[in-house]
Amino acid sequence: MNKRRITWWIAVLGLIGVMASCRTLPDADKLPETAKKTNPTIEHARGTLSKGQTSALLQRRWANATADLKQLAVLEEQATGLPLIAGNNVQLLFDGPATMREMMGAVRGATTSINLETYIFDQDPIGLQFAELLIEKQREGVIVNVMYDSVGTLGTPQAFFDRMRDAGINMVAFNPVNPAKAKGNWSINNRDHRKLMVVDGRVAFTGGINISSDYANSSLFRSRAKPGKVDKNKIGWRDTHVKIEGPAVTTLQWAFVNAWVRQEGGELAPRDYFPRLDPAGDKFVRVLATEPGSHSEIYKSLMVAINEAKKSVHITSAYFVPDQQIVDAMIAAAKRGVDVKLVLPGVSDHGLVMYAGQAFYEQLLAGGVKIFQLQVAILHAKTAVIDEAWSTIGSANIDRRSFIHNHELNVVIIDPAFGREMESAFNEDLRDSKQVTLEQWRGRPLADRIKEWAARLTEYWI
Which range has the worst mean pLDDT, 190-194, 216-220, 402-406, 425-429? Predict the structure, then answer.
């Protein structure tokens, strides 16, 4: 999210704020606390597993897992209504350069279709390279469908998208700023914040990374460089994406097709968008694709996981403006002995959001939650790992906009081995973060307190 877009965005929200009714998040007291069954529902390449098959698979995959992990999976299913999908390979991708290499490599290897859904698609060196690659594949006979958000791409010239359209790529502008150009139900406050690419219906990418050169400079993640040695003019962006292969790709493909149809993007050109997918790995994945008017599945999933945490809640959040229920859940976890740590921005591309989130710091710190601010990198990741076994990566920030108004996409991976990899990544970020103490925070300048107060007045809309 760039500053040039934020100015316009806030102005629009100021105009519509008095006209729009405020939606609310689910009541935390109504989230499930008792599992209604022993094992979660698990789907695989050939349908839903029977009870016996589920028990046998969980015994193999979660042999060393506790009963608490199974209960968490069941409670999350009860809260979201969504099953786990077995047989997936999930590869963690850190920062823009590594992610773009993998995504462009998948595009080059495409033989039938490429479906891309993104919030930002910039006309800059990365965007131009990506667009040229898509045009090349379209000319080779691969069907390319692109859906981009109209607010997220406000700074991108229309000619950039027209060139792709003229090359035969099917283009859809999500909720155009001009209502006269909208084909479906128009609402400028509802944005498509998802980042999703599905190639040949067999491999999918999702997470926090947009198509933009903002991500061209990698962060210090897994670098031996010292924060103080970094050129301040080349500050990197810290983000996380995933590459998924296996049956979960079918559900991700459905998420794209559903969004395309709801935007009345027209008939997709005939292709085998849903090939039969054999198991590609051993990871259980839950796909949470939310939109305005849905049942806040991403929010419910996070709340259930925090409420069920036994050892640790480790969250990395780029834009952190929680509601009081999330704050209460984190404090309750800390008070029952759970290690609750947050990695939040020390450097941000969106000061208003950062100050709105900091308005919660004193309450969280006093409640036993540990807060760390990432230094010398712009934090854009939206991830969490709980009890080293439950992990989530996606596009949703911890704020009302993501949970209520945006189209968002997160994946949950319930797997101890993957959880340990996520925990290792979290600890890497701690290396380049500075802890905020309650004593230090209470001594902050009055000017900062005023900014926090003012920013919090806008927390519903930012």
Answer: 216-220
Q: For the chain, give the percent of residues with pLDDT over 90.
A: 72
149 is catalytic: no
Pick the CATH number of 90-262 from 3.30.870.10, 2.60.40.10, 3.40.50.300, 3.40.50.620: 3.30.870.10
Q: Which of 241, 380, 405, 451 is catalytic?
A: 380
Structural tokens at position 357: 């989130």
The whole-number pLDDT of residue 30 equals 94
Residue 234 falls in the annotated catalytic set: no
Tell me the pairing of strands 196-199 and 113-118: antiparallel
The pTM is what?
0.92
pLDDT of 14: 43
Q: Which residue in the list 193, 341, 350, 405 is annotated as catalytic?
A: 193
Catalytic pick among 95, 149, 200, 429: 200
pLDDT at 439: 95
Q: Domain-by-domain residue ranges, the chain?
A: 24-88+282-456, 90-262
Question: Is 283 a known active-site residue?
Answer: no
Distance CA 121, CA 29 (A): 40
Centroid of chain to Cα 348: 17
Whether 193 is catalytic is yes
Share of residues in the chain with pLDDT > 70 (%): 89
Task: Quote the Cα angle for 119-352-292, to 5°.
Answer: 40
Does the active-site annotation cover 195? yes
295 included as an active-site residue: no
Q: Which CATH class is domain 24-88+282-456?
A: alpha beta
pLDDT score of 19 more than 80: no
Distance CA(29)–CA(216), nearest Å, equals 43
